[in-house]
Amino acid sequence: MPGLLALSPIIVFLIVYLVSSLLAGDFYRVPVSSAFLVASVYAVAITPGELSGRINVFSESAGHWNIMLMVWIFMLAGAFAGSAKEIGSIEATVNFTLHIIPSHFLLAGLFLTACFVSLAIGTSVGTIVALVPIASGIAEETGMSQAMMAALVVGGSFFGDNLSFISDTTIAATRAVGCAMHEKFKANLMIVLPAVIVVAGYYIFKGLSINSVSDVQPIEWLKLLPYLSVIVLALCGIDVTLVLVIGLLLNAVVGFGTDSLDWFGFLGSMGQGIAGMGDLIIVTMLAGGMLGIIRYNGGLDYIMRSVVKRARGRRGAEFSIGLLTALANFCTANNTIAIITVGGIVNDISEKFDIPKRRAASLMDVFSCFVQGIIPYGAQLLMAAGLTGLVTTQIIPYLYYPFAVGICVVLSIIFGRK
């Protein structure tokens, strides 16, 4: 199948979503799931072969173990967030945060906290699960934008995803080209550090306009336990699914112990939380199926061939690595899978054009995290949207850190060694 036709489902999705939103004059009126359904039906329709075979390809991709793992995490996160809200754990954690962080440094403090937590645990999704509900609660208490507060955490979460030694993207990138993790860390840090400084500086400036919150309630220490435990356990490197299960059990213990809820209230709050994740679970599976069809039809192979044959000189080769990784990420919605997909070709490019291995690994990691941070169907934005009741397109305009990282990596190529 011709390459552009194989990639056309993404174009159909963008046209349906963007054009419909423009005609409606409201980008929040058109459900992302509806646009993905139209694009998915189109993807199946243009795929050659028996209809049953095409549907099987779509279904197997939608039910891939990585997609199912995300669905499992979404459900646990929804259940945890719903029960934590019911027992007052979110309010208690928000009050604790407002007590310890001066109001003028609230934005910068939360952003840097997200950076630190993600660096420590090596996962952006885990950071979002732990911190977005707190950020959302702070937004309600202070009157700040929910979308901006969610984006603040999402942006900070990608700092660690990009740099952490235990991040799957770091492991995938260094193994693909054969370089040491500490070398790739240094190369990455030179690119993203300016972005962190600029964005943190902006948040400090933005925070100057925040008035102190005078009606902060006393801290209920026992109700702090579930969220603080989730953060601490995540920092200890425990798998996010186990962290959420432990968090659920703590919600039950605290809720029963403080008479905040009974058994039926606990089950009901979990059910409401899971139901709130329904739309993003559907989007995740539709996106997985559609992108699987694109891979099956040769869309990724077409991208790799088209990009590689246009590389000219080291600077052009570095842009090719970035573009190759970015396009693969657009077509997989998973930065780790994107790196694994293009890693072999990137290694060949780095050897052909004398690009240091640490630089090649860094470029893959940075470009993949940049794209993953801005696509509306990525797991991180879907998770943040599900936890706040927003849609992903409301959050994207406030994603200052991913956009700053994208600018920094492009400038590093333009003004780097020829």
How many individual helices?
21
How far the N terminus sits from the C terminus, by CA atoms, comes to: 37 Å
Question: Uncertain runs with pLDDT below 50, 5 residues or more?
Answer: none
Task: Write the H/E string, N to C.
Answer: HHHHHHHHHHHHHHHHHHHHH
Helix- and strand-based class?
Answer: mainly alpha
**Number of DSSP-assigned strands:** 0
What profile does the largest beta sheet have? none
Strand content: under 5%
Shape: globular
Helix content: over 70%
Q: What number is the mean pLDDT?
A: 84
Q: Supply Rg.
A: 22 Å
Overview of the molecule:
The protein has helices spanning 3-24, 32-46, 51-62, 65-87, 89-100, 106-121, 124-142, 146-163, 168-177, 181-207, 221-235, 240-257, 263-276, 278-296, 299-308, 313-332, 335-352, 357-372, 379-388, 392-395, 400-414. The protein is mainly α. The mean pLDDT is 84.
